[in-house]
Amino acid sequence: MLEVDGLRKRYGDTVALDGVSLTVRSGEMFGFVGANGAGKTTTMRIVMGVLSSDGGEVRWNGDRAGHETRRRFGYMPEERGLYAKMRVGEQIEYFGRLGGMSPQAAKRSADELIERLSLTERRGDDVDSLSLGNQQRVQLAVALIHGPELLVLDEPFSGLDPIAVDALAGVLAERKAAGVPVVFSSHQLDLVERLCDSVGIIKAGRMIAGGTVEELRARESRKRLRIVVTGALPGWADRLPGEIVAKTDRTFGDGARYDEVILTPTDDQEALRVAAQAGQVQHFAWQEPSLAEIFREVVA
């Protein structure tokens, strides 16, 4: 289990981290989200020992993390940490050796990862000749080569096409199933919502919300209704009680028109009455907020 307890970091007058704490358990995937400059990368670098903190502590399985502990972690920085002119296979093996593996063990592990990440045809290519997606796959292989006990990944899905996203997500799911805690940051909140067991939201160096997506939804202060009505006259939605978040005119596959309204109601029963009077109610139900909506509300 990874425990980050009260991390603090300043750069002159700028407070980068102000008491950041989080916990990631065995076999848990943790999504770390926040705006640019919120403190995600700084936190990850302190976890990995790339930066020192001004206060707080990083613990692994209850003990303070030191150099030897961090050798068993896998790290994927947002910036490329690869040798551009080194061949793919040689590079992955090299990082395995840096992680303390024997030449034979590093080659075996590299062979497995190259096949799993669909890099077999690129094994002899220089890294700088690869596409962005394949470079990301190599970077992930480097993070995984020594069988890390913890994975810390900074924006691993940035700039990837859907096929590459699915490939990386599949590998991370395998490591999670094997009991490895996985921490990754991302601005792709739909991806975080789909993959992660828990989420931490950071703003200006402070953790302002955390928990499962379901727990974060339960804290959402504004419940929303989705109402779909056919056959209504223009302007009917203006009579709905509450705040209209979105209103759209759409058509079904057969060409029939319908109105879709997302409403924060002051009286849900009155909203139902107004909709029923306006036309045929096709859908009337509470709408669960997405992680993106939760994020906007929390950081506002």
TrEMBL record:
| Principal location class | membrane
Give the GO terms filed under biological process for this record: response to antibiotic
Please give, as recorded in its UniProt entry, the membrane topology of this protein.
Peripheral membrane protein
Q: Name one GO molecular function term.
A: ATP binding
Q: Where in the cell is it found?
A: Cell membrane
GO CC annotations, alphabetized = plasma membrane
Identify the keywords attached in UniProt to this record, alphabetized: Antibiotic resistance, ATP-binding, Nucleotide-binding, Transport
Tell me the InterPro entries matching this sequence.
AAA+_ATPase, ABC_transporter-like_ATP-bd, ABC_transporter-like_CS, ABC_transporter_ATP-binding, DrrA1/2-like_C, P-loop_NTPase
Q: Where is the ABC transporter domain?
A: 2-229
Pfam families of this UniProt entry?
A: ABC_tran, DrrA1-3_C
Give the similarity note: Belongs to the ABC transporter superfamily.
| Protein name as annotated | ATP-binding cassette domain-containing protein
